[in-house]
Design brief:
single chain; 416 residues; three-stranded mixed β-sheet; 14 helices; binds N~2~-(3-carboxypropanoyl)-L-arginine
Length: 416
């Protein structure tokens, strides 16, 4: 068994659009009604995957879900009198943000020694709540090897669960036993607190985690109000490192101490408000970064290009790599199409620590497959989608055919 971290990125679906459906996600609501560019969006995502593979890291992917979702349109009896947001929900390509696909507890952390995955119920938003049964169908195929994986049903409503976006794992190395940290929000603010404490606790129990190696932390309500609708907008962890904003947690000092009590090797890289304000951190998505362990044992931070465009953020990052902290490299990537919906590099990936040989190879990427996928995307993904096209038969045909071309290429007829 060679346990290693595999990032499963969501392929951006052909219906990618800006309908402004996510209250509290300031990027998404401010881009409501813009024209989207699904082909460019999907190619940006693949370029990020290629760039991570070039670092010597294994890369997987999950497919876009079938859209428009006919079952949702039927069950809501959507017609021309219905609120346009209901129609748009059935067209959303939001499954691209696979950090919200599931919570993952790898083999070294669980009582039965299997890697446990619980799809996120995403109940707070209609366009996301429709995702999990189809997401589970993919997880059931990709991780069908039940000697090594257990895929659960989602936590039942009304406890909101948003998956890995509110979950961090600390360990000496990915293959070593971890301490799992669950971050939840307290409801009652002006924006929804999407992760409920009871959902996090249920996931920890379902996965058979040792209660002494679990930490539950409250997110700062001010962070949610400033637009951090998931904790991964203000913090990211890898191995022994927590990279976080000073105001990420309700009690920052208490949060670090609680993690340190369970994981004494913790190293905190904290960005103070005086260097980068919470607002600037959220605008640039500094923390929605992939903090990666490179084959040479150092760490790199994959940030969105927007970080280079903010002088304060870029200055802070330059000073960080010039120092002698654990993060030695910063790699900016262009994921602007996803960013405009509030999805940075970290939102686009689900981390699974596993032996790649135990994963269905159809979900693993290599250069040849990436090239073939780019061809399919270039040929079939709509170049652009304007708001008036959502709901049209012509676009429904185009996006349905586009997805079929991908499932054909990947030899995944069970998802066709
Ligand atoms: O759930 N955006 C997503 C972005 C998710 C980002 N994920 C993480 N932070 N891990 C969301 O708010 C916008 C779609 C729209 O409005 O059409 C959207 O769903």
């Amino acid at each position: 068994m060679t346990l290693t971290e595999i990032n499963f990125d969501g392929i951006v679906g052909p219906s990618h659009n800006y309908a402004g459906l996510s209250l509290g996600n300031l990027a998404a609501t401010s881009h409501k009604g813009d024209t989207s560019y699904p082909r460019a969006a999907a190619l940006q995502g693949l370029a990020k995957m290629r760039s991570n593979m070039a670092l010597g890291l294994p890369q997987g992917f999950l497919l876009p879900l079938p859209r428009p979702n006919p079952a949702l349109l039927d069950r809501l009896a959507v017609d021309e009198t219905a609120n346009p947001a209901l129609l748009a929900s059935a067209w959303s390509a939001s499954s691209m943000w696979t950090a919200n696909a599931a919570t993952v507890s790898p083999t070294p952390d669980t009582a039965d020694g299997r890697c446990h995955l619980t799809p996120a119920n995403l109940v707070t938003m209609l366009h996301r709540a429709q995702e999990w049964p189809e997401t589970k169908r993919q997880l059931d195929i990709a991780f069908a090897d039940t000697a090594h994986f257990a895929v659960h049903d989602a936590v039942p409503p009304s406890y909101g669960d948003e998956g890995a976006a509110n979950h961090m794992r600390f360990c000496e190395g990915h293959a070593a036993a971890g301490v799992e940290v669950f971050v939840y929000g307290r409801p009652g603010g002006k924006f929804p607190a999407r992760q409920h404490e009871q959902a996090s606790r249920a996931v920890a129990r379902l996965h058979g985690l040792d209660p002494d190696r679990c930490v539950f932390i409250e997110q700062n309500g001010e962070a949610i109000e400033a637009g951090a609708f998931h904790n991964d907008v203000v913090s990211v962890a890898n191995e022994r490192v927590l990279f976080t904003h000073e105001r990420a947690f309700a009690d920052g000092h208490g949060a670090h101490e609680a993690i340190r009590a369970a994981f004494p090797a913790l190293e905190v890289v904290e960005v103070p408000e005086s260097a980068v304000s919470m607002e600037e951190a959220i605008r640039s998505y500094l923390f929605n970064a992939q903090l990666l362990s490179l084959p040479d044992g150092t760490m790199a931070l994959v940030v969105p290009l927007e970080c280079r465009e903010s002088a304060r953020v870029w200055d802070w990052l330059q000073a960080m790599v010039a120092g002698n902290g654990p993060i030695r490299r910063v790699i900016p990537v262009d994921v602007r199409q996803s960013m405009a919906n509030g999805g940075g590099p970290a939102c686009l990936r689900l981390r699974v620590v596993a032996d790649p040989a135990t994963v269905d190879p159809r979900f693993m990427l290599d250069e040849a497959k990436a090239g073939a996928m780019e061809d399919v995307i270039a040929r079939h993904w709509p170049e652009s989608i304007g708001p008036s096209e959502i709901g049209t038969d012509a676009l429904a045909d185009a996006v349905t055919r586009a997805r079929s071309a991908l499932t054909d290429l990947l030899e995944l007829p069970e998802l066709g």
